[in-house]
Design goal:
This protein has helices at residues 26-41, 125-138; strands at 46-48, 58-61, 71-82, 85-89, 97-103, 106-112, 118-124, 148-153. With 159 residues, the protein is an alpha+beta fold. The chain binds zinc ion (ZN). Zinc ion binds next to helix 2.
Length: 159
């Protein structure tokens, strides 16, 4: 495993649409492991492949405080959304900043695991927010485009 460099806002790769994964080979497995290590090291709750410069539809998420429940999603799609939540959101590609974004309060995502087996997962509150945020990255959307009002600075410990 290795840490990958997290691309910052302004890097054009963050505005590109990622391509679906057609086959999970050793390069994809390595990438997923590196993404998890990079996310945990940066104290993030989610990371999308384009954030490490790879335009593939792969997302990792872990919103647990212990960081022991990684969710790996290949070719994820939101298939249902309900309710709404408005709150602060941040991004490893926009360090030290946060902004208010309204998201669904509950989403169901269909994705594939590392064996290319399809699964569905439902997330509420922070998990729903993380799913929406990371899947947006796959379409070249960074949350700053959705912020209501202004971005504000946050303590690095909390970002
Ligand atoms: Zn992000």
């Amino acid at each position: 495993m290795a840490l990958r460099r997290i691309r910052r806002l302004g890097d054009p790769v963050l505005q590109k649409v990622s391509k679906p994964v057609t086959e999970v080979n050793h390069k994809i497995v390595d990438l997923v492991h590196d993404m998890l290590e990079t996310m945990y090291t940066a104290n993030g709750v989610g990371l999308a492949a384009p954030q490490v410069g790879v335009l593939k539809r792969i997302v990792v998420v872990d919103v647990t405080p212990e960081g022991n429940q990684p969710i790996v999603m290949i070719n994820p799609e939101i298939i249902a959304a309900e309710g709404s939540q408005t709150g602060d959101e941040g991004c490893l590609s926009v360090p030290g900043m946060a902004g208010t974004v309204t998201r669904p309060n509950e989403v169901t995502v269909r994705a594939y695991d590392l064996s290319m087996k399809p699964f569905e997962i439902k997330g509420t509150e922070l998990l729903a927010r993380a799913f929406c945020h990371e899947i947006d990255h796959l379409d070249g959307i960074v949350y700053v485009e959705k912020v209501e009002g202004r971005l504000h600075e946050v303590n690095a410990e909390e970002s």
